[in-house]
Amino acid sequence: MATFVNEPAVGMMNDAEHRVLKLVVFSEAYFKPRSELIQWVNKLLNLNIQKVEECASGAIHCQIVDALYPKKIKMSKVGNLERVNFGAKYDHEYTMNFKVLQDAFTKLGVKKVVPVQKLIKAK
Q1: How far apart are CA 38 and CA 5, in angstroms?
Q2: How remote is the C-alpha of 10 from its chain's centroid?
Q3: What is the pLDDT of residue 3?
Q4: Where are the beta strands (DSSP E) in the chain?
């Protein structure tokens, strides 16, 4: 695992933010090629994606957070609550999935804003 570059900022984070930051930014995964990240996602979620672009719908992002924090994301419909749309095909459906992800971040106390426009273009 890489060392923290900015210790004071890390020290001001809550536990949920710190875990996500360690996983996403300060881990060795941040410096890995796409092929290794795809392999990791496939293994973690028992999937068979071939390209990073397959993550653009936001459903896989939600599954990753659900794997780390079970039951914090509405993976299936409960009443009128928003849920993850695994069949999303259009940008507005992708945006709704990322809204579900952002809501989970808010519940977890993670102050990271999800860059939806960038993610739905798989960049």
Answers
A1: 26
A2: 19
A3: 33
A4: none
